[in-house]
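Hi there, hope your week has been kind to you so far. Thanks so much in advance, here it is:
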Amino acid sequence: MAATPRMEDLIDSNALRHRLSALCPDGADGGQPAIRSKVLQILKEVRNETRARVEQLLLEDRQGSLCAARLSHVQDEMIRVIYDFAVAHVYPVKNPSSAERMAVTAVGGYGRSTLAPGSDIDLLFLLPYKQTPWGESVVEYILYMLWDLGLKVGHATRNVEECVRLSRSDLTIRTAILEARFLWGEQALFDDLAHRFDTEVVQGTGAEYIAAKLQERDERHRRQGGSRYLVEPNIKEGKGGLRDLQTLYWIAKYFYRVKDPADLVGKGVFSREEYRRFLRCEEFLWAVRCHMHFVTGRPEERLSFDLQREIAGRLGYADRQGLRSVERFMKHYFLVAKDVGDLTLIFCAALEEQHVKHRPVLNRIINRFTKRRPKPLAGSRAFVVDNDRLTVASDDVFERDPVDLIRFFHVADKHRVDFHPDALKLVTRSLKLIDAELRENKEANSLFLDILCSKHEPDTILRKMNETGVLGRFVPEFGKVVAMMQFNMYHHYTVDEHLIRSIRELSGIEKGQFPNELPLATSLMPGVQNRRLLYVALFLHDIGKGRVEDHSIVGAKIARKLCPRLGFSAAETDTIAWLVEQHLTMSMVAQGRDLNDRKTIRDFAETVQSPERLKLLLILTVADIRAVGPGVFNGWKGQLLRTLYYETEPYLAGGHSQITRDQRVKAAQNELMASLAGWSDKDKKAYVERHYAPYWLRVDLPRKVEQAEFIREATKAGKKLATRVTPRAFEGVTEITVLADDHPRLLSTIAGACAVAGANIVDAQIYTTTDGLALDTIFVSREFPDDGDEQRRGNRISALIERTLAGEERLPEQIERKALAKPRLKAFELPTDVIVNNSWSDRFTVIEVSGLDRPGLLYDLTRAISDLSLNIASAHVATFGERAVDVFYVTDLTGHKLDNKARERTIRERLVKAFHGVRAEAKDAKRGAA
């Protein structure tokens, strides 16, 4: 194995000085434009060569901290060379006065001798007194040279007195100078600043600084989303990222006056193992950050999906044990982020012991005169309350009775008290006590079930159990999904965080916190016979992820194993396992099937089998979708779930009507005629004869009334092309109804116009009248909260639809431009799947197409279906992040199902090709040319 190159081997600064000096023979003015241009060219060559060398070394040794140190060293040497050239050849002073001195100082992250490839270069030009023309010129030369090299430079020019004064009032300046490092120039100036900063700024202000930095950290976390488990994390600013480690370093350096984090071991803050963990976290995060900057060529800090796969490859991850390489890499990242949280907790506990971190709910007036002692808890000798936070009565509590590791969290939930950092630190250091014996302990399992199903805030306690490592040790199956990400755009959090958030959503439903958003789930929850079944099923519903087998099936197996341990009966265990196995069913049926098709409802009812299970599955599905991420659950999905529930309930309750189809059609016609106020009997009769049977069976009465008035107005006006826009705020969609001459590509044209307008279609209903018109209703995702704004947007979309149907707009070119403007995310590769099924509906063949979403997809699919001489009765469009699932209920031109296997194969082939749109056609053309 080759030896690690020394820092000085990366750049030969003396040779570089000689090269630059050679450009100024016989004392030539180095500031001449021609010479300056050559200086810049040489510096660019050297910088590009050294950066390429540093990147190659990173790929070879994968040492992120060393990469950051190498980049810093190269930057140091270049600044020193530029400074020397400036004072020797551009602005030489033969007899410098005492004012013509300067210390070039690295501050901020650069002051720690670490740089990422795209980091800012933070410099302080330190002067003895006020600025002089010479100093101003030298600073300007250095800065312009660095800017011309393509560097982003943060800089300040101040004297020592100004630095001290500004440090007292500005926390950012104080932190920058805290990390100041002498680079070049007058060492004495820097030493003077360091001494005065220490004696006049730092001393006696430790508590103030710590409080400010921790508040700054909390605000930064809030801006970044408040969770360390976001699937596209900010590697620098996010919770658990590099900035959190740097905050610990700043505080340590400020309060403990250490120059190296290793000194914190001697101060009793970290154990040696915890310090090694600090180094491992720092090493990993620096490696990821440096690779990100090298790959993108910019200071990219967000670890987005399109970067994750490439960084995983650079770091050497491979597919293994059911996890893709990118998922293994991101699991490592989230475990590191969790470790950073643990280290922060331990560090804050040490600060509190030193009485420099403010304690919450502390009555400072009382404490001024009396020393408060921890208060014992009634009925517990193991725990006490110290300043309204739960802690241990002695350091051997958990060793004496390991059940107390679970009881600790149960007591916190029961008494509604926060956790003391000392106790949490002891918990993390006692995880080895959670063994097979404790997992089978009846009392421990009873306590855990109480925590999981608490009526207080179960997610808060579960999250703390997870962060300390207790949850993953007590439930090993949960431990396997800790920090596990799902490499898709649908899920916003890691699996463990999603499971805990789903418990929070269920708790909110039970407390009645969402009566307007979730009216059905809220009304059903009080009637649930055994609420604990729901909590446990939600806790387990995704616990089988990351395995080769389908996660729903794996999760059901885990439920059958775990539930008896938690004290559930065989019947209760069976219900929980069923909920876990079927947890996706209701969502998929609601979003991907025609809920007006009786076969859909019958099949779903056969799966559910009982009203109680229907109730449980509805609530579980709502909580699950809401926990996926912000905005994933919306009014339209809620409406679909409610419709499915209300349609299925009569089947399960035995109250489904047995009247014939013709009788139901006649009843619907009579119901509408009775609702058409101001219509003559002749007009009513003529109108009902315009619709075929499917219309009467599939459209609800309010919409039938609205559409009758719409068609009547269009007919009176002599229009055969008309549109109507209705914003539906509660469902979160806008309904656009189109009346036009029927033709095979009508839905395709409407879909294309919506794609050009940037409108996302979520559902479509298609009906033909007996006089040759088509009545198509599409539902597009709502964009504006205000109905007026949404109405205007809907009018713009409908106007574009009308112009397109009138032949005034050309769609293919516009859709192609739209696709080029929003290319598919290169990070994702999904197989395209086409299912042609005749068993999902009694009257229609159902075509389900799924794969990677793209602009104009629905347009291309509906156009292909029309070209295949198929009639579309309804279309149901769902997107799950980058994955599109489009479902079409179709017949042939005679109104019958498709029953020819050869034709089904043709449909699959044509739709796969249509799914890939222009790109596939271009590939075919290129292949043909070759």
